[in-house]
Amino acid sequence: MYEVQHNFLSVDDCEMLIAYHKDNCLSPEKPLLPTKESLGVYFHKEGETRPLDIIHKFPDIDEKVMSWVTGFGGYGNLYIRTNEITKWNTGNKSPLHRDKFQELWSALIYLNDDFTGGKTFLEDGTHIRPEIGKCLLLQGNKVKHGVTEVSGIRYTLGYWIGWIDSHTITIGERL
């Protein structure tokens, strides 16, 4: 199951989020401390995707995404498990995959479209073309999806939404 909403975010919102990433994401030579992938220092290599965790930094956008998700009903209490702004560089791509089993919903908001490639593709052969402000919502733990190779710079805002489990750190738990 997947749905697309055009103009989910305004052009101004998208430009603000790209500027936020540029202002807050460290250069490849500097470590990111901490990341969800590590307990210590994580270095990015030149050309890798550059995710910037922004959990709960933009509550108006969070609420808009959650309102859409909860509109499907029947899932109990859902939470934003993580979300990030990601810079995709030339050559970056993602193979066909499913998200983690506890991530019931995945939302991907395209922040720019001045690049080639970078389409999201689904296992049924569907290709979703990036457009500024467009949001793709899918059951990421069920629907296999990937990204075609990017030529240029692609920015996305991703959300992974599910239930709280023993591995999820909620606000206030981390010291």
From TrEMBL:
Native organism: marine metagenome
Protein name stated in the entry: Prolyl 4-hydroxylase alpha subunit Fe(2+) 2OG dioxygenase domain-containing protein
Gene3D superfamilies: q2cbj1_9rhob like domain
Phylogenetic classification of the source organism: unclassified sequences, metagenomes, ecological metagenomes
